Each structure stands twice: as C-alpha cells, then as structure tokens.
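Bench notes, afternoon.
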Amino acid sequence: MEISEIERIHCLIIGSGPAGYTAAIYAARANLKPVLYQGIQPGGQLTITTEVENYPGYPDGVQGPEMMVHFEKQSSRMGADIRYGLATKVDFTQYPFKIWIDEDKQIEAESVIIATGASAKWLGLPSEERLNGYGVSACAVCDGFFFRGKEVAIVGAGDTAAEEALYLSKLCTTVHMIVRRDQMRASKIMQERVQRTPNIKIYWNSETEEIVGESKVEAFKIRNTKTNEMKMIPVSGFFVAIGHQPNSDIFKGWLEMDEGGYLKTTPGTSKTNIEGVFAAGDVQDKIYRQAVTAAGSGCMAALDAERFLSSKELGI
C-alpha cells in the first residue's frame, strides 16, 4: 500500500494501558509533544476488569474502564496527542525510527516508548468469556480479595498458577486446582508448597468443560481425561492461570526478548538494546503485572526518553 505522507514525531508512545498513559503524562509535561497510539484495546487489560481496589488514590475503589478514562483524560489535559490506531510494523535500522500505523501511515520517531502490554491466555470457553469480570479472572492478586471466605477454582500447572493458588489459599476456604496432566510444570518447591497446603484440592488429569452461572460464577464442570468422569463443583470465583502472551510480535528481530517474548530492558531502566527505544509495563514485566507497577515503569520510560532526547539535542 502506498504511503501518503510521513509524519515526524518527537516521542511516540505505542499502547494505552497504565504504562502508556503515564508515559504520556510525563512526556507531555516535559514538552516532548508525545503522540500516543492506543492500539487494539484502548485502555489495556483494565478495560475488561470490573472493580479495582488496590490502586492508590481510590479509597472507595474504581471500575477498571472508568480508571482508564481518568488516565486518558489526564494525559490529554497535559497535552498528549491521543490517537486511535495500531502499530503494525517497525524498522529500527536507522534513526529516526520508522513505524507504520494501520499498515498505511508511516511515522518517523525520534524516540519510541513501547507499552503494548500482555494478553492473558484463556481456555476459549464461551462461558469463560461471558462471565469474565463476573467471577472469572486472570489475576488472583488483583481479584482474590473479593472472594474472601469463599470457595474458588484455579486452572493451571506452572509457577504462576501455584503462586496464585497459594495466595488464594490465604483468603478462601477452599481452592480447587485443575491440572490437565498427572503432574505440574511448576518448580519442585512450588509443587511441594501447594501439596502441603490443606485447603488446596488438586484435580489431576482434568479439563474444564464449562463455567456455570448466569450473571455470576456459581460452579465449574470438569472432566477426568483418563476416566471421562464428570464433576460439578460449586465455587464463587474461577481463576485462569495458564500464562500471558506479551504483545511484542512486531518487535521480533529488532529488540532483545526472553524465551517468552517479553522485551528485555537494562535493569533499573526502561532501556532496550536499541538506544532511543524504551519499554514499559507488562510487555517487559512478567513478574509483577500490576497497574501500579506498569504506571511506575511508564514514568521511568518518559524520563529515560527525555534524557535521551536532551543528549541528542546537546550532541552528547
């Protein structure tokens, strides 16, 4: 497709979760004239979250989508140029960097902040999609609090699933853990902790058939893959912990990544292996994955970008 015009941008921000919007706030205040493209899911993962109670500054809690509207309004008020559009291709061979939006618009950026986030992996059940935010969650640390004193289920067999099951076991009466095979992938020490915890009940060789409930989670149905036996177990919450996928595909071949596709940054900074390209939020964080840590790394990325651009202007 023919490119109609090439736009030169001082600071380009790709992505619009807490990391992207915070980067936009700081970059705008530093007069970097940031342009932010919101991507495929404006507002990021918080737009599919209901109640958020652990973000500072909201004493009564806030709905996830409402919070992201606040983030967007604040970054706009500071002077950030917020646009709809999806980055579809990059070329970091030369400076300024080339980025294509929606395949046909080309941008030359003097600095780039990548805040494209990560997407939770789901089981792919219609009932899971329907009840997402109504008892179905992909983040026990975010939502476990709402199920204190109740029974919940968690599906997964890796370290994250084990960690989240242990977290939930401190809040909930019983944690029903669904494991697809006859063993877990988690490290030995995590497996031992899970198996030693009396209120975690493990269902081996089991697959989730359905999450039951009309307007909220009421139970889950599993099938034993060895015997074909079906079970229906009442619960109030259902947590999916089968991993996350960082939204980093378009940067493959350009930026250093770990084996999971998370962008590598220099410890203590947001700097990638290419000078002038920075990464913030869940696209580079597979450990914490919280709105508040994403926002903090967005601030770091904007400050790093400001220093980089100043050194360029000064010819350092």
